[in-house]
Design a protein that fits this description.
Length: about 130
Amino acid sequence: MDLVVISKFFFKCINKLSFVIGEKSVYDCKITVIKRTVNSDIIKEYVKDKYHDIRPCERFKDGQEFKVTKESRYKPPEGFCEWAWADLRHDLLTLAYGGNIPHMVDENSNIVGCTDWFRPVYFKIERIE
């Protein structure tokens, strides 16, 4: 199965879920870029020398914020990296549909990261109530 087929199936399931629970149970969310990093030690050990000048992700800035409304919750905000969106959308949808993250001090939020492990970006997702 390719990613497009899986994504279409996932979105159909979520659309059915929103019909069952009702749109009143869906919340807006805010995504904040907490930190952009570079794992230089891993790069030096595993990446070819000519690629050692890897810099923090250029797609985001620390402190940058994105709002995701209940109407736009299935697609990334404008300018948002598709790769990072794929990594965090499940956590965002959990919060958007009223789920809590029990290990967090603020259970209406979660900390997630993109899976570019050479230069990951860390995000905070918050449910807006």
